[in-house]
Amino acid sequence: MKINTITFKIASLALVVALSACSPTPRRTLRTEEKAADFAWLFSQFGENYAPLEYKESLHGFNYAELKSKYLERSAALTTNEQFYALMHEFVAEFKDAHTSGQFMSSTNPGRTEVAYLGFSGDRVGNKFVVKEFLPTFSADSAYPIKVGAVITALDGVPLVDQAKGELAKFRNLGQEQATITYNMNRIFNRISTAAPIPASPFAVVTVKIDDKTTEDIMVPWVKKDYYQFIQEQRAAALEKRAEETGKVATAASKAEFDTDLFSLGYSASTGQYSVIPSFFKALDRKQEGFNFLKTFAFIDTAPIWSSKSLQKWLLESQYGRDALKAQMEAMKSATETYEEFVKRYFWEEMLRERTLPTQYTRVMEAIDYPAYVTPVIVKGADGKPTGYQKYVGYIYLDTFSPYSEDDVILASVNATLAKFKEFGVKDVIIDMINNGGGSLVLGSKLAQVFSAKKITLPDMQFRLSESWMDDFEGAALNGASDAEKQLARSMLDVLKEDKSKGLRLSRGINSEVLMPWEIKGNKALAAGGVAEGGFKTYLLVNEMCASMCDIFSGIMKDNNLGTVVGVRTMGAGGNVVMHMSAPNSGFIVNQTESLIRRKDGSYIENVGVSPDVAFDTIADSENKYSGARTKALEVISSENIVVSQAPVAGITVPAVLPAPTTEGNK
């Protein structure tokens, strides 16, 4: 079994929940009073839990009371469930909030939900779309005119960018135009009636780029099916393909293994029925046992698309997903590998699927969940010409703030990585956070602290003055680890109560360190007095899909003068997100932003993000696995003045002209 299929399988478990649940889309056509009741439920969730309501009214120029009246009136005139589903999504999209979204739980029984697709999925590259894979029901031998590698520029004569930020953004708007475009690109070609309207036309005209000057319009049919029929067909086709690849006829055991695959979508081998995994919601639904607000700073991708990378990270936010991944990884470990050796190999190979390596590098074997290496760079003078010197640059692939290992293991590994960097005389470190969807506030804050010997300043938070946050502080006041922590929580609860008594929606700005008291300390393992007060100058690679804790981490590093940001503006998902279930008649689930993060200058991250210090088009660079962004950072590093020392560093001598590191293959 290959590692890359495992991540692909794990992603499907998120789709299990996204597309099947205990309160699925109904069989009957909803009555006017039922639709009104569901909108009343949705309004109540925004009223109680949504933190940036007043901020969004001011920013986007709407009146919430008028918005509610308008949508309630519109819902009464609708005649189909699909129209109502679209209207619910449209209401949520008005807030232009990456963290705030909705989803309907599609029933796996026939006659409830429809899908429409062209058969392929892929990635955005600049303003175009590159086809990467097809559904199992599309044979590679087919004469279907669109192939893997095709570059698509328009659909039905409308440029893809306009499609993504226009019609589709009516139903899912992240509040940052480039992020919205990237997010919606796959949804242009793959539709489900619980997320957006199914195309009315039986055919689509796909504009494919032939060369720099030529395009070709190709007419292909929209394949429209009942959702139940769709998943049955895809599962059967995928099993058949697996049998062809392995030369083995599918057995009951192999089918059971395959039931976690992408197109099973909730199929239970033990019962032969489609079912739900409710424990998945524990990481996001505050009503479930084990919920932790500190781990909810993550972008939740609810798009029902069968190749959504961020769904993989979403699933790993849950303990269920972590346990499932651990079980899969255990089965893949060879008999000769220690567990730590296997984990290192697993995540290194995961990185290689998303990034390319430089020509010369030395891998840092101390790195575990966050792969790292050292690479040489030629030093240039003020005239832009090589000086004859070179220096080493460290690279860390930091793709999530909810990694596989526990926080203490992660922090020890990162510190060990930095110690290895110091042995090479590294002063500059590239931290690659492109497509990092966020995760844990505590881990992200501690990782920022790792790069400074001096204690850093964390951003302020404004809490929604709701029962949920108050309950959380009250729980900490009752069950804290010490009397001091209990007292601090009681004091915070009093502050929230006082602010609420004034009629405020949001609390005053409170430093986020209150959520992790006495846990943020200067990193004494770093030698004080060096660059950035710790011996390292960092360059953060970011893009429009750097979200939530990735937004926050970028802001922390900039505000503490610890990092230079390279890329494009981050998503601007500036708080935490919690899932709330569910509307009484349609089963609609809504995710809500329940706090706001304020940077050092008092500005919000929400809808603003973090702007780059060095602009680079990471959106177009996706085709190159973002090697151009890394090269851009290296160019900035190579042009800076350095002092070459002959003194021993961590037990080794660094010569004036550094030897090239050992070149390893992509293995």
Which key terms come to mind for this protein?
alpha+beta; 19 helices; single chain; 28 strands; 667 residues; disordered N terminus; Transcription Regulator spoIIAA
Brief description of this entry?
The chain is α+β, with helices and mostly antiparallel strands. Strand 21, helix 17 (549-559) and strand 22 form a beta-alpha-beta unit.
Explain what you see.
- By secondary structure, the chain is an alpha+beta fold.
- The chain is built from 19 helices and 28 strands.
- β5 and β6 (158-159) form a beta hairpin.
- α1 packs across α10 (309-315).
- The longest helix has 20 residues, at 227-246.
- It is globular and about 70 Å long.
- It starts with a helix and ends in a 14-residue tail after the last strand.
How much is the average pLDDT?
82
Q: Would you give the CATH topology of the largest domain?
A: 2-enoyl-CoA Hydratase, Chain A, domain 1
Secondary structure tally, helices: 19
| The CATH top-level class label of the largest domain | Alpha Beta
Shape summary:
globular
The count of strands amounts to 28
CATH architecture of the largest domain: Alpha-Beta Complex
